[in-house]
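Lecture 7 notes: from sequence to structure.

We start with a single chain of 126 residues. Read the sequence below before looking at the structure.
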Amino acid sequence: MDAAPQTPRVLVIGLDPYRVPGPWDPKPAADAIAAGVEQFAEHRVGVQTCLFGLDGSDDIPAVVTAALSAQPWECVVVGGGVRRSEGDLFEQVVNLVRRHAPDAAIAFNTRPDDTFEAAARWIDAS
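Now the structure, written as tokens:
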């Protein structure tokens, strides 16, 4: 008897749009993130999000490390907000991925709604 095929597991690391300071409407970004996550379910790919704020309420390395350590990941997608943030946040996140999920592919989306496509380049999503 063959074992059931394993579904790929993807972790999406990004900014919580409701906790990014500034004069902007976070709802369109939150809606786009939700739409991107829905695509994983449509393709039967396991996904978990790790969203954190830039409002000072999160210990970002601890939040990211906990998510990375929760289970083995086939792919980790780092969102554009992290890549474009000021300071060394992007470097911190990439190095945390290297340290805590060394076997995972690292992917980068261009928009929240193309997150599945970014991960699909590196996993078997058939």
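The first strand starts at residue 9 and ends at 15. Keep this in mind for problem set 3.
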